[in-house]
């Protein structure tokens, strides 16, 4: 199996947490479902379709926790009145126009997020993805969670990946919690800061999300874990999301 490696970055990002209520918290990294959506945008696959058409997809992700800040956003709660079919240059606004209903909420934004993504998807999508990344030619503009937050994609490499036997490895990617056991002695000796995340992994056609738990290191350093689900890609050891 071959994986395509590319860099995913942008000025801002926001991946809404499933448990967010009044304040819109964000995941520090894009969930697997969001990465499939970004790949789908590159390929020209419609909304909610990549998570079905691109399975089985092998996705690995590396990155550090970006800085965050809070932004107040105005969200409309009702659609505006439709315009008349014919508009004249002297026409004035209708006095009976209903007042706008909107609310101000706080959104947690990621500042300068940057990640490395490894992706293996079914053919013919895999070859098309590689060509489009090399030529920087996407069908839809990829974004980092919100359509206003444009994403930049940079092709890095394509190479074979090979499975590794069960052992303790320093894994470069975000690690699925149910596929590994942390080597706490090495975690402490390497002075690592491990964060536990619970993020969407898959979504059904009816938009029912299935979650999984993950480990990631604050600064993107390799995580020492015992696992039988590791793969070797060049100099990196990966575990798929």
**Share of helix, binned:** 10-25%
CATH classification, class level: Alpha Beta
Report the total helices: 4
CATH architecture: 2-Layer Sandwich
For the largest beta sheet, what order do the strands appear in spatially? 3-6-1-7
Compute the number of structural domains: 1
From the N-terminal CA to the C-terminal CA, the straight-line distance is 16 Å
Catalogue the unreliable spans. none
Number of strands: 16
**What share of the residues does DSSP label as strand, in percent?**
35-45%
Question: Summary?
Answer:
The protein is mainly beta and 241 residues long.
Describe the model.
This protein has 241 residues and is mainly β. It has a single domain (2-71, 105-238), classed as Alpha-Beta Plaits (2-Layer Sandwich). It has four helices and 16 strands. The protein has helices at 32-43, 50-53, 125-135, 184-189, and strands spanning 2-10, 12-13, 58-63, 67-76, 102-111, 114-120, 151-160, 162-163, 167-171, 175-176, 181-182, 194-203, 209-217, 223-227, 231-233, 236-238. The strands form five sheets. A four-stranded antiparallel sheet has the order 3-6-1-7, with helices on one face. Strands 2-5-4 form a three-stranded antiparallel sheet, with no helix packed on it. It has a three-stranded antiparallel sheet with strand order 8-15-16, with no helix packed on it. A hairpin with a 5-residue loop joins strand 12 and strand 13 (209-217). The longest helix is centred in the first third of the chain and has 12 residues, at 32-43. The protein is globular, with a radius of gyration of 21 Å. The two termini are 16 Å apart. The mean pLDDT is 89.
């Amino acid at each position: 199996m071959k994986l395509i490696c590319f860099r995913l970055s942008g000025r801002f990002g926001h991946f809404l947490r499933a448990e967010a209520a009044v304040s819109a918290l964000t995941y520090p990294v894009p969930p697997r479902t969001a990465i499939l959506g970004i790949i789908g945008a590159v390929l020209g696959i419609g909304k909610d379709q990549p998570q079905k058409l691109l399975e089985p997809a092998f996705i690995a992700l590396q990155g550090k926790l970006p800085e965050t800040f809070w932004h107040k956003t105005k969200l409309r709660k009702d659609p505006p009145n439709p315009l008349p079919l014919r508009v004249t240059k002297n026409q004035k606004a209708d006095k009976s126009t209903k007042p706008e209903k909107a609310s101000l909420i706080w959104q947690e934004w990621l500042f300068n997020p940057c990640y490395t993504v490894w992706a293996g998807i079914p053919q013919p999508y895999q070859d098309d993805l590689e060509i489009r990344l090399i030529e920087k030619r996407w069908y839809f503009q990829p974004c980092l969670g919100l359509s206003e937050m444009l994403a930049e994609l940079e092709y890095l490499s394509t190479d074979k990946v090979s499975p590794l036997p069960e052992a303790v490895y320093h894994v470069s990617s975000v690690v699925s919690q149910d596929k590994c056991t942390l080597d706490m002695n090495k975690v402490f000796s390497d002075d690592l800061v491990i964060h536990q995340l619970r993020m969407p992994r898959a979504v059904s056609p009816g938009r029912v999300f299935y979650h999984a738990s993950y480990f990631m290191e604050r600064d993107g350093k390799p995580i020492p874990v015992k696992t039988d689900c590791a793969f070797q890609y060049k100099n990196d050891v990966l575990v798929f999301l």
